Amino acid sequence: MPLTTTTYDRLSDFLRTEIALQLGEGRRYLVEHRLNPLLLHFGYDDLDELVSQLVLRREPQLVQAVIDAMVTSETSFFREPSTFDHLRTRVIPRLFEERQGRALRVWSGAAASGQEAYSIAMLLIDRFPSLARTVNILATDVSLRMVQRTRLGWYSQLETERGLPQPLLRRFMVPDRDGYHVRPELAALVSARQMNLAKPWQMLGTFDLVFLRNILVYFSPEIKAYIAEQLTDHLSPGSVVVTATAESIPDSGGHFEKVLAAEPHILRFRG
Length: 271
Fold this sequence. Notes:
Elements: H1 5-19, H2 28-42, H3 47-57, H4 60-70, H5 81-99, E1 105-108, H6 115-127, H7 129-132, E2 136-141, H8 144-152, E3 154-156, H9 157-161, H10 166-172, E4 173-176, E5 179-182, H11 184-187, E6 190-194, E7 207-212, H12 221-232, E8 235-243, E9 256-260, E10 263-269
Parallel strand pairs: 1-2, 1-7, 2-6, 7-8
Antiparallel strand pairs: 3-5, 4-5, 8-10, 9-10
Helix pairs in contact: 1-3, 2-4
């Protein structure tokens, strides 16, 4: 049975409140497609009943299942290759120099299934092997299912073919079933945990390099401003923030400057 307008609106309000996801109009078919598989698992007859119970009872397993189903988790290895070129040639060498040997902390803030975090780890081990041993990479996502995938570190052949060069595939991935598993040296640099960017940030610490790519586009201006405010509390002068090329961080306080004049999506924190 299709979603009624009332049920769609209730779900939209719920997702906006819980994870700041803006459903908008014209996505009813997508919602039905993503939520229908949950009916059998949770024993509901239709989506109206599922959404009603979701909103009224907020049973944690159902809440998480709906969030996992509704968030977009599109990612790939070395997505936007030019960004990684800039990291390799300009950003990371300067960070290591400025931090004077101190262990760098890196955060992939919308990590999905982990390819971004592991791409960073590969770049560091491949190009900065002596320094990579001291790097800590945190991968977070609102989807528990994606966090579990990152921890597992297994990717299908199709996933590895999307952006992962063959030399790096051979060096850092081990054939496993019908795909590949990350090698221990790679997994040792990456830890994963669940995090909702739209809620208060807790126990994160300070980062030297932050990736908030392909996530800000899904948020309202108010949530973007909230994220920017939270972010400044987790950076130190000289820290670098990377967004997607089509995204930007609100900066009413003038906290950021471009690392490269022609790349406004790579920003250095002034303090």
